[in-house]
Amino acid sequence: MTELKVTKERVNQAAEQIKGNGEKPTIARVRDSLGGGSPNAIHLFLKEWKEGQSAEKTEVEPVPEHVQRSLMDEFERRASGARAKAEAEAIESSEVAYDLARLGVKVEAEAVELRELNARLLSERDNALIQASERQSQIDKLTEQCEAEQTAASDAKRETAKAGAMLDLQQSQIEKLEANLSAVQTKLDEEREKTATAVREAAVSAGKCAAETRRADDAVELGIKTGVRDLDAINELKKELAEVRKDAKDAEKLKDKAHNDALRFKTQFNEANDKNRDLATQVQSLKAALTEAQSES
Description:
CATH class of the domain at 158-296: Mainly Alpha
Strand content: under 5%
Distance between the termini: 63 Å
Largest sheet: none
Structural class: mainly alpha
Number of helices: 5
């Protein structure tokens, strides 16, 4: 709240007004008339006004000369000592009061400066609190971002570990498939060899069958031409021919079985090979994903 400014002119006017109302001008009455103000400043200006008032002469009714002389002598006799003492005390009190008033004005000025300084400090404190709140908000936001990034990094590490485990599993499956593929390849080679052997044996049996058939036919034809009918020899030839034909038929069956087995193993080999390629593709994809995840983390 702003202090009401006190001036000499306003104090003099207020004192004259109070005196005109038949009252004694005092600091409290002057202050009430002014509506406020520093009591110390009012005291200084009111003291000057009172000193000016005491210098003015007061008119009295004329008194006979002998009475005046008697009164003055008695007054002077009784009051001379008291006057000197009172004047000394009054001068001392006035000087002390004046010094106190000056000191009060100085203190009030310092108080005004202190209030202004306090107001500035309060404003700076409020601004500092606002800045601290804003900085705390920024810190909280950065903390949340850091925690989110840490969570993302942890998730990425878990995904990387999971991808690594999957890659190891796929690699193990590939190794097993490669082993199975190698076994199937070996089996296929064995079956191909068996098929080739069966084909060769079937060809030999077929050749024997053809030779025996021709020999039997030649023997029959020779017996017809010579008139010799060796039934036992003919029957023996027929029996051998039947056995040869049976061997040839068995060889043909073995050939077909070997061919079918070769086709079956070839199909298994192709399926295993296709599965191996698919797994190899998956492994390459997993390796690429793992490399990307490691680079991001």
